[in-house]
From TrEMBL:
Gene3D superfamilies cross-referenced by the UniProt entry: Hotdog Thioesterase (3.10.129.10)
Domain of life, source organism: Bacteria
One Pfam family recorded for the sequence: FlK
InterPro entries: FlK, FlK-like_dom, HotDog_dom_sf
Residues forming coiled coils: none
This protein's name: Thioesterase family protein
Organism: Enterococcus pseudoavium
Fluoroacetyl-CoA-specific thioesterase-like domain boundaries: 10-112
Length: 119
């Protein structure tokens, strides 16, 4: 299946303390989710026409280990199933050789204009 590997550096604005999801200066779970979604979106974007985009639909995440500010997080997203406009991903995140997160994620392909018309 199709796969993308992307590196992200943990910034001070991505800590649990800064984001309000916790009290410690470590990578926040919401920031890890954003990294994983971004990697998946980028992987899928290459398949879409200009009028299309994808939106996050579902995320099942295990945040397994803490990560310090300044660390480089490597995210690997792989498409594991395509069901019409619903695309499923398996995602792993690493801090060096340590697995820090695993997720199953679904994105839905939408027409940009039609999607925004729902606002």
């Amino acid at each position: 299946m199709k796969k993308l590997t992307k590196d992200y550096q943990v910034g001070t604005d991505q800590t649990a303390q800064a984001m309000g999801s916790g009290d410690l200066e470590v990578l926040a779970t919401p920031a890890l989710v954003a990294m994983m979604e971004n990697c998946s979106k980028l992987l899928l974007s290459a398949e879409l026409v200009a009028e299309q985009t994808s939106v996050g639909f579902k995320m099942n995440l295990k945040h397994l280990a803490p990560t310090t500010v300044g660390a480089e997080v490597t995210v690997i997203a792989e498409i594991v199933e395509e069901d019409g406009k619903k695309i499923s991903f398996s995602i792993e995140a690493y801090d060096k050789d340590q697995l820090i997160g695993q997720a199953n994620h679904q994105r839905v392909i939408v027409d940009k204009t039609a999607f925004l018309a729902k606002l």
